[in-house]
Amino acid sequence: MRSSFLAVILLTLAGCGGSLKTVKPDEIQATAIRLPDGATVMAETMRHEMDVRRGMMFRDSLPDGRGMLFVHGSPGMYAYWMYQVKIPLDIVWLDANRRIVEISPNTPPCPSKSARECPNYGGTKVSLFVLELPAGGVQKHGLKVGDRLLF
Q: Is the Cβ–Cβ distance between 115 and 89 less than 8 Å?
């Protein structure tokens, strides 16, 4: 009786293993963002000040279907720059209702080694969230000011 009970427990536990999903390290702090065209972007989510400051610095790529979402503590005017960013990006500012208020498409990396020589982009409208996509993402998905993203 005891061995039958143990066998049932072991078989039950063995059946549970297939339902676990392997999580990649870069998906741990991720947000699924639904775009108006129905596409979903998985965005690394940056909430802490140091993460927001680092952003896409030193990265060699941002694959299609991926992004980086910055969550600011309160609504404000948040200009972004491309210092130490190696690839062009589309930068999208969203208000508290997740509506696009500003877009900087195909924002180029800053070629200068001096942070002081890198221009700022956007930050002319009040926003709470900023989404960075691979360059061309805004055009590919037909994003425009006024669109609402779901997340």
A: no
SS3 130: strand
Q: Is the pTM of this model over 0.90?
A: no
Q: Which CATH number fits domain 21-141: 3.10.20.30, 3.40.50.300, 3.40.50.150, 2.60.120.1140?
A: 2.60.120.1140
Distances (CA, A) of 17 to 4, 12, 13, 23, 142: 21, 9, 7, 14, 41
Instruction: List average pLDDT for each run of 10 residues in the chain, which is 151 residues long.
Output: 35 36 54 98 92 84 96 96 95 98 97 93 98 98 98 96
